Amino acid sequence: MTITNPPTSRSRWRRAALSVVALSLVAAACGGDDDDSSDDTEAAETTDAPDDTETTDAPDDTETTDAPDDTETTDAPEATDAPSGETTDLDANGDGEVRIGIAAAGPRDDGAYYQAVVDAAETFSAENGWGEVIVVDNIQAADAATELANLAQQPIDIMIVGASEIAEPMPDLAEEYSDIFWYCNCGAGFPESEFYLQSQDNGAGIAYTAGVATGIALRDSGGDSVAFLGCCDLGFEIQHYLAYQLGLESVDESLTFTYVPTGDFPFDFDNIQNASAAYENAVAEGADAIYPYLGGAHEPIVQLANEGGQIVLSAGASDVCTREGDLSWDIAVRFDGGDYVREIFPQILDGSAQEGDIIVYSPGEEPDVAGAVICDATPEQQAEMDEAYALVASGDLDANFGEIAAEAFGG
């Protein structure tokens, strides 16, 4: 993991706030006032959270619309760098309660990429005694400015923008509603700003390991072809499947790969009918493995692949190798926004991650939250995957990934 944390006036203000909070706590302790005078504030509900939601991860990567600018990075500070006992004051509106708002591009209960962020945020909020999370889901890119502004006007203190596909209005809104702490699960990246924290991931490196894992699984099972079901040839999709193909062919150049768009432009990763038809066509043409790089349509395709006996991959979710339920996966392709929330939010709380920072997760780096995993891998298969991770971490593929990014994003 790498992090950039350029000094900003906003960061300095938050560090100063830590001292004020600490002095206030001392004063309160000396006064011996045990009365709790804060009233609970009811959140304006938009989309109700299901009581029982299965924790997942995925898509996808669903990464972003634009390629990130090259940014010099440094080693990330440990999450425990903040002085003991100090926490950032996140009660932006002063109502005595910290509340998270989540803007999700897809369904909050998709069992994949979008739900992962919601589940992780709800769990972290409950563990810290915060207010009920407010979730607005199924946000279309064209409506993002309105929906994010509406959510910012609710009694929230932290805003999670769940994917960069709806992040275009974020720079202006984060500055306008600067009392709120803004965090973007930005995948392939978004322009740097002092008004929001963002996580990114090495999408090409993750996709490369997914291709290696698929190649190993196909080779060892006697298969020879994979169908990649996506949306509509978006830039981050192109980056992902080209790096995926590179990893696949590193195992065996004779393995065949087909990309199949299933959604309407832009960002339609939830078209179950089209994805199902694409699956049937792919199987009819001999596909032995299916990579459903999808959101709301992901689990229905997994079910079809389970019934059809094809190798199937997750699209972001990290827990699928051990997840209970009727569905099963052969490979977990991890770019799980829920994992990123679990890593980052303790750092937000202790002040070691601040608005303006960019945190990047990559295969072969700690924490180990990015890259493909073969479920129930043999020792020999795991050794091959370890080599793939080490290759990505070494930087030896950076030139290849740069060429892929140029092709995908037109750079």
UniProtKB/TrEMBL annotation:
Residues 1-29 form the signal peptide. It holds the Pfam family Bmp. Residues 32-75 have a biased composition (Acidic residues). Gene3D superfamilies: 3.40.50.2300. Residues 30-95 are annotated as: Disordered. Keywords: Signal. InterPro entries: PnrA-like. This is Basic membrane protein. It comes from Ilumatobacter fluminis.
